Amino acid sequence: MVDEVLVQGFHNLLSWVSLGVLLFTAFAFADAAFRREDAYRAADKQTKPFWLIVLGLAVVVNLLPIGLFFLVIIGLIAAIVYLVDVRPAIKQISGGGRGGGRRGSSSDGPYGPYNGGR
Known about the structure:
Blueprint: H1 2-34, H2 37-43, H3 48-63, H4 69-94, E1 108-109, E2 112-113
Antiparallel strand pairs: 1-2
Helix pairs in contact: 1-3, 1-4, 2-4, 3-4
């Protein structure tokens, strides 16, 4: 009886983790799909089709009913690499970072541009 409860609880936990990984990889795929292709080249981060294929495969592997755990982990790592390394570089190139896309200059102070007291 106790064994059945523990197994059921573990199965529920794995189901939630699996759903979280699926949503995470789907977000990475959608984000990659909406970014401009030239930003990938400008950031020197592979190509847009490369990331769409890799992240799309990660989503598909998560949707498969068979347990290809090692492929799920590889897809998760690819999504993490995209969101931690590629996405910020592309956002910086395309002006999608903080400050509404305005790039600061070397004369900017903590409260905005310094104009030499004028």
